[in-house]
């Protein structure tokens, strides 16, 4: 396996420094931005595998000579370093109603381990393409979550929503805690949380507004996914900065 890493990027480039992909004789995982740049890098990586080379470097201007019009320049480092073991964040989606069933698959396109959680087997049975968990004690899933994980709360019961949101916020180490609802619901929860000695400020509620009042499940799911995507992307960029 050859790791292809953008070690430097200047000007307009399809990916920033730190982006990686891994190349084997018959498979590519990840991307450095696609296009002719990526084809060239894959070809060079497979040459290295065939020739048993350990390291290589490519300095590539992204201009018309290679059929790309970005106009920038990238330096690629190719080596046999093994990929880093990457722990993905969990995204725990509580509530398998219409919004939950739309949101869970939407989140699955992000680098997240998504689980749709509910106490109702008939609702979970309607979910497609996602990991589901049937449990009568959903708050236990929050207690077992890891620091930096994500919780989205949209159950069929306001009291259960409040219980789960309070449990999530009381940890103080989750990256995102969101709850479906209105400004009125948020105000009610804030009073409830303060009565429990919990700061309600980190709670995202309403979720998925995206500047539009559209309440269709698919739109709420799409805008909520965008909120979480920004968070995941920002965390990834911070990790790259630390690595560099």
Q: How would you state the average pLDDT, rounded? A: 90
State the low-pLDDT regions, or none. none
CATH class of the largest domain: Alpha Beta
* Terminal CA distance: 22 Å
What attributes does this structure have?
single chain, 244 residues, alpha/beta, Rossmann fold, 2 domains, five-stranded antiparallel beta sheet, five-stranded parallel beta sheet, 7 helices, 23% strand
What does the model show?
The protein is α/β, with parallel strands linked by helices and 244 residues long. It folds into two domains: 2-79, no CATH class; 89-237, NAD(P)-binding Rossmann-like Domain (Rossmann fold, 3-Layer(aba) Sandwich), CATH 3.40.50. The protein has seven helices and ten strands. The protein has helices at residues 35-51, 98-107, 121-124, 139-143, 158-171, 183-195, 217-243, and strands at residues 2-10, 20-24, 27-30, 55-61, 73-79, 89-94, 112-118, 131-134, 150-153, 176-179. A five-stranded antiparallel beta sheet has the order 3-2-1-5-4. A five-stranded parallel beta sheet has the order 8-7-6-9-10, sandwiched between helices. Strand 2 and strand 3 (27-30) form a beta hairpin. Helix 2 (98-107) runs parallel beside helix 7 (217-243). The chain starts with a strand and ends with a helix.
What's the topology here?
Blueprint (H helix, E strand, L loop, with lengths): L1 E9 L9 E5 L2 E4 L4 H17 L3 E7 L11 E7 L9 E6 L3 H10 L4 E7 L2 H4 L6 E4 L4 H5 L6 E4 L4 H14 L4 E4 L3 H13 L21 H27 L1
Parallel strand pairs: 6-7, 6-9, 7-8, 9-10
Antiparallel strand pairs: 1-2, 1-5, 2-3, 4-5
Helix pairs in contact: 2-7
């Amino acid at each position: 396996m050859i790791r292809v890493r953008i070690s430097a990027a200047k000007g307009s480039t399809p990916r920033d420094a730190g982006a990686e992909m891994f190349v084997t004789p018959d498979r590519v995982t990840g991307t450095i931005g696609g296009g002719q740049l990526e084809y060239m890098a894959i070809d060079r990586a497979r040459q290295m595998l065939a020739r048993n080379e350990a390291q290589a470097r490519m300095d590539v201007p992204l201009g018309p000579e290679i059929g790309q019009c970005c106009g920038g320049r990238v330096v690629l480092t190719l080596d046999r370093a093994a990929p880093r073991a990457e722990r993905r964040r969990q995204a725990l989606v509580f509530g398998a109603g219409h919004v939950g069933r739309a949101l869970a698959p939407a989140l699955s396109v992000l680098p997240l381990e998504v689980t749709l959680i509910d106490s109702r087997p008939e609702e979970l049975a309607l979910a497609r393409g996602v990991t589901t968990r049937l449990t009568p004690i959903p708050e236990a899933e929050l207690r077992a979550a890891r620091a930096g994980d994500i919780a989205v709360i949209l159950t069929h019961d306001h009291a259960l929503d409040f219980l789960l949101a309070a449990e999530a916020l009381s940890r103080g180490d989750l990256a995102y805690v969101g709850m479906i609802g209105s400004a009125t619901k948020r105000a009610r929860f804030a009073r409830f949380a303060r009565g429990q000695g919990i700061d309600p400020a980190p709670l995202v509620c309403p979720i998925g507004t995206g500047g539009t009042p559209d309440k269709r499940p698919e739109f709420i799911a799409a805008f909520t996914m965008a909120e979480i995507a920004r968070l995941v992307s920002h965390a990834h960029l911070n990790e790259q900065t630390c690595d560099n």
